[in-house]
Amino acid sequence: MIIKGGIVYDPTNGIFGEEMDIFLEKGKVVEEAKGKEIDARGLLVMPGGVDAHAHVAGTKVNTGRIMRPEDARSGLEPKTKLLRPCTGYTVPNCYAIGYRYARMGYTTVFEAATPIIESRHTHEELEEIPIVDKGALTLFGSNWEVLECVRDDDLDKLAAYVAWGLRASRGYGVKVVNPGGGEAWGFGTNVKGLDDPVPNFDTTPREIIRGLVKANEMLNLPHSVHLHTNNLGKPGNYTTVLDTMDTVKDITSTRDRQVLHVTHMQFSSYGGTGWRDFESEAPQIAEYFNRNDHVTMDMGQMIFGNATTMTADGPLEYNNARLLHAKWSNHDIELEDSSGVVPLVYGRKMPVNAIQWAIGLELALLTESPWKTLLTTDHPNGGPFVNYPEVITLLMSKAKREEEMATLHELVAKRTVLPTIERELDWGDIAVMTRAAPAKVLGLAEKGHLGVGADADVTVYDLRPEKIDPARDHKRVKEALGRVKYTIKGGEVVVRDGEIVAVPRGRTYWVDASVPEKDAERVQVDLVEKFEKYYSIQKSNYMVQDAYVTDPVVVKAGVI
Amino acid sequence: MIVEDVICPFCGCLCDDIRVEVEDNKITKVNRACRLGASKIRGHERIKAPMVREDGELVETSYEEAYQRAAQILYQAKRPLLYGWCSTVCEAHKKGILLAEEVGGVIDSTATVCHGPSIIGIEEKGLAGATLGQVKNRADLIVFWGSNPAEAHPRHSLRYSTNVRGKFTEGGRSEKKMIVVDVRKTRSSRNADKFLRIRPGTDYEVISALRMIVGGNGDLLPERVAGISKDDLVDMAEMMKAARFGAFFFGLGLTHSRGSYKNIDNSLSLVNELNSHTKFMIMPMRGHYNVGGFGQVCAWETGYPMAVDFSRGIPYFNPGETAACDVLANGEADAALVVAADPASNFPWSVVEKLAEIPVVQIDPFENPTTLISDVVIPSAVAGVEVEGTAYRMDGLPLRMKKLVTSSYPSDEEVLDGIIKEVRRLGDDN
Amino acid sequence: MREITIVPLQEFEVPLEAENIRPDIFATLSLEEIRDLEVWEGNRRRYLSDLFSVAGNDGTGECLIRLDGDFSRVKRIGEGMREGEILVRGNIGMRAGSGMRGGSINIEGDAGDWLGREMRGGSISVKGNAGNYVGSRYWGERCGMRGGEIEIEGSAGAYLGDHICGGQIKVKGDAGDFPGASNRGGAITIGGDAHLPGAEMVSGTIVVKGRARVLPSYGFQETAEIEGQLLWKFVGDLVEKGKGELYVALVEDDGQLDK
Ligand code: SF4
Ligand SMILES: [Zn+2]
Question: In terms of domains, do B183 and B222 share one?
């Protein structure tokens, strides 16, 4: 296949708006190929989009669906000869997830959190999500084995456990949520800062983060530790984040990537001492990123309207529910973590929400390098992923930001600096934030670019970058971003003129990391005891079987 | 051959430590399972071959013929109901939902006669839950409300709740408190530290009274609530607040007494509010081993956990209208497919009569009273004994059921696939 | 006003969904176009004229729809209507007038479940009985009926006005279990008996002129006279820190329950 004459943005390969042809063959980008031609003359062409952080599969997501029949009343699309029926806005069904990503030109999405013991469920849903490639990040922040290894300062064993946990969950990377807090929540308490001891385990969040980051690098994993910080969602939490990032600064990454990815930074960039004097500290965070290169973040942009918050941060969700008198689901996971789900509505006239909205944008606009700030909404926590076109246009158009701000609570002008920001991102920046950078941050060599050997995942937008000014024509741009001209996945046209025309199955990435035999054995000794005494299932029934990952991409890593 | 760590395909406890001896492709011994589980694993007499009703009699036929007849019935129906699913694996559920889409039917699980009200309660309030291992390791107070685990979930107490030891519950039963609330004495209530016997149909009021006490408004309560003394209720509320970790399990005694989903709604709020004093979780005692799994699959495939109406090509959900019992009781269904369930035994008689009036296709390994009113009967392999697949425990934890012996019968999934193919062929012909 | 009369051509084996039977839709259509409107017979898409005879004034304009015959298996009539009138000379099926915003539906027979679900305005009257969930919310939503009026001469089923947030419901006869649950500003009057009214009510009023069992989470305040009748006034539901007003003529006590 040849994609002819597009205006290509491929930041990984230093290509920013060059007219060129792209050749695809057997699912890969190649030097030269024959076959079907796609007429992309003058149109904006990018690699397929990569979402490095969204909640799209597993217990939390399905809990959201089950407790929100009202959400499934929207987003209805009937069954067709080709497509399964779709429901939902914040918690769409599996088919809607695949189709909607594809229609926006996205071809890869990573589920942000799966507890090992329930990963079978996560994979059952990932398998049902059509078209896109996917993977899942495994939770390690409160696992008893992790807490004990960290307490005993036994990094070799910790690394061996992480390797085993990734295999057991068929997971791709190390996710840490409110480290230590998941365990504390088992008895209804929380950890309040990096040095607040985890009850009954004689360790601290700081030690857990440092231990896991070191183990992650010992294992040479493709992705870094992916962290949801302590105190997330609380006023004044920006100091926790700054401290957290500093605490891993001395650890060197073994790969060409960050040593820590701090996720949905919007929820961690808060100033003030409470909700009354709540304000943005995004400038401080951005400043830190401008001075340091060991960390990356994603926005976690908030979108006004309905959201369903869902996270392994159980205590956070409990507090949300009490504050808002909202429905509350909680799900604590034996020996591993906690989690919660709370639906909510972000209101334009709510001072806190208006400020949160501005913070996400400030982070992306004040951080100089787009390589450090991935575009996410922390779907569906900040809002559903279908709003990415909205976020992109906000970043590209000051005029649009001003239009929006005029409809918000006036505190947005006093408690944030957004009104003073002139910067308007260009297509190169957007291609970085939605393709090149997420792939690099995740360590996916064949994603997010169009160099020879890359996966044949391509987006062709119905936009002529040479003719259209996104700063002015943001309405038109938003429309085109939501309904692409073509999405090509693995060399196959899956979307044409905004409609799904083919529904291939996606593949699932997971990481198989090797460790020294003796460490693996020491972990097994611990685990045998844990299963005998504490788990409610047998060890032999724990690990996700191959049957649940029918089209795997196994990435090798490890120490030998 | 000995197969270890077999998962029991009977109740929602989904015990995964069963030891099964197999000789010559026959199960000869079952260890560790309770009697309910053991008898399910051992099995009993099977439906021998597919059957179709001719002149009022069920006569044996081929699978092909049975698939065709089943497909015709479902394809021609204007409002087919696809019901059951509690005793088979998720792989079959997926096919069932696909078939429901293809024939524009209503699909629902046996939740309609068990924990459907619980799900509706959750839709109102959410559910403060946890895995059963969390209960094992932490719970020092366990409440069973309208549920009798000693009879219905025999190993629950030993594996997960009152009589198990865990990390923070090393003392076992002696360090735990157990409260039973029920309308009658049960085998479970005999072992309780506190037994609150309430009058039938007063659950909601009693729960409201407990919420009043937990919320600090006990002084506004009358001296007796639904016949129970206020002191008794205060005592129970204090026990719950004093727990380090409380677990509230409820059964059909709460979901199917007067008040129905409102009882669950109120219980969920009670537990929610207890969390401002201590840690508390709540869980329905799911009956059949994989009725929970159907809810999961249905939710991720359609957005709703049960009672989904595909008649217009878009999922529509409205228990009270689209649940299996509604569709039958209101005389809406004009054909039914029953998979891995026995509505003829579990539905009220008036509803069974309606079912008997319409063509029924049954897929099941075993004959049951539903067979008697079926027009096409398709025997299948026993999921979890002869077929592998996924099941979800009552706490939502997924496990992979094992295949212990090889069967000559097709799996439920294969049967459904056969019917789907025939339905599609009919669609292409027209 | 233009009148259109619709009569079923047959008994319906499976229920129909006919949300197009709606005066403000008819208002812009000719008779021929009305006959071509879509209805669903179970999973089959049909024309209105396949299943009903449609007669009346041609041309366009504000519309009175007369439904003659048994419509008890026809669902969604008048759903979302904003103006005009529907007159039912018989029974009507589920979800009639749900999400209705204006106009009126007058039913001479009985109404099915979910009558006036999530209604926002207009009026519905029923000469006979109504089913469950009158004026209620859809599952998981916070609000049922928000405005308008529903009047039922007979009795209503369970869950009357569940999550009602505004508007008025009057039932001359009895209501079933849990009327006015989670009331947040609606007004419900029940001429006869009810069971556990006002569960989790936050605001609004419920009047039960007959007998009712009152939740223990209600505080007794005083006696009050309403329409010449002396009633007990309670406030609740206190489990939700509610300030709803509940008036009951005869409070069912435990003794009565025992019988
Ligand atoms: S308790 Fe339930 S799952 Fe366990 S062995 Fe008995 S029947 Fe099987
Ligand atoms: Zn997240």
Answer: yes
Say yes or no to pLDDT of B397 above 80: yes
Extract the tokens encoding B44.
């009993």
Segments of chain A scoring below 50 in pLDDT: none
Pocket test for ligand 1, best of B35, B36, B42 (most atoms within 8 A of CB): B36
Q: Looking at the 3D structure of chain C, how many domains does it have?
A: 1
**Radius of gyration of chain C, Cα coordinates, nearest whole angstrom:** 20
- CA B246/CA A187 separation, integer angstroms: 10
Domains and CATH numbers, chain A: 46-445+454-500 (3.20.20.140)
Q: Please report the pLDDT score of residue B113 as a whole number.
A: 85
Confirm whether B28 is domain-assigned: no
Give Dmax (Cα) for chain C. 64
* Contact of A460 with A49, CB cutoff 8 Å: no
> Helix B63-76 and helix B90-103: axis angle, to 10°?
50
What is the reported pLDDT for C258? 40
Asked which of B254, B284, B314 is the last residue of a domain, the reply is B284
Of B3, B2, B10, B4, nearest to B38 by C-alpha is B10
- The reply to whether B7 falls in a domain is no
Q: What is the pLDDT of residue C255?
A: 56
Average pLDDT over residues B124-148: 97
Nearest residue (by CA) to ligand 1, atom 5, is B33
Strand pairing class (C244-251; C203-213)? parallel
List phi, psi (to 5°) of A135: -165, 170
DSSP string, B271-338: HHHHTTTSEEEEEE---BTTHHHHHHHHHHHHSSSS-EE-TTSS-EE-TTTSSHHHHHHTT--SEEEE
Beta-strand pair A279-280/A270-271: antiparallel
What integer pLDDT is reported at residue A560 of this predicted model?
Answer: 60
As a whole number, mean pLDDT of residues B80-106 equals: 98
Q: Residue B203: in which H helix or E strand, if any?
A: helix B203-214
- Give the model confidence (pLDDT) of B24-75 as tens digits: 999 999 999 999 999 999 988 999 999 999 999 999 999 999 999 999 999 9
B280 and B316, same domain (yes or no)? no
How confident is the model at residue C256, as a pLDDT? 46
Let me know if residue B156 belongs to a domain: yes
Q: How many domains does chain B contain in total?
A: 2
For the cut 60, the answer to whether the pLDDT of residue C179 exceeds it is yes
Give the domain CATH number at B110: 3.40.50.740
- Contact criterion met (CB below 8 Å) for B239 and B179: yes
Query: CB of B14 closer than 6 A to ligand 1?
Result: yes
pLDDT at residue number C59 = 83
Closest-CA residue of chain B to C256: B226
What Å distances lie between residue C11 and B77, B335, C8, C21, C41, CA to CA? 17, 18, 7, 18, 12
Closest CA to A334 of A555, A534, A147, A198: A534
- The domain in which residue C44 lies consists of 2-252
CA dist A168 and A185 (Å) reads 24
* Spatial separation of the C-alpha atoms in residues C135 and C166, rounded to whole Å: 10
pLDDT of residue A559: 79
- Quote the pLDDT of residue C61: 84
Q: What is the mean pLDDT of residues B352-365?
A: 96
Percent helix, strand, coil in chain A (nearest 5)?
A: 40, 25, 40
Which residues in chain C have their CB less than 8 angstroms from residue A69's CB? 138-140
pLDDT higher than threshold 60 for residue C259: no
Cβ–Cβ below 8 Å for A71 and C140: yes
Listing DSSP states for B95-129 in one string gives HHHHHHHHHT-EEEEGGGGTTHHHHHHHHHH--EE
Q: Is residue B13 lining ligand 1, measured as CB closer than 6 Å? A: yes
Cβ atoms within 10 Å, residue C57: 14
What tokens were used for A54? 């969204």
pTM higher than the cut 0.95? yes
- Pair B302, B413 in one domain: yes
How many Å apart are CA C193 and CA C206, to the nearest integer? Answer: 12
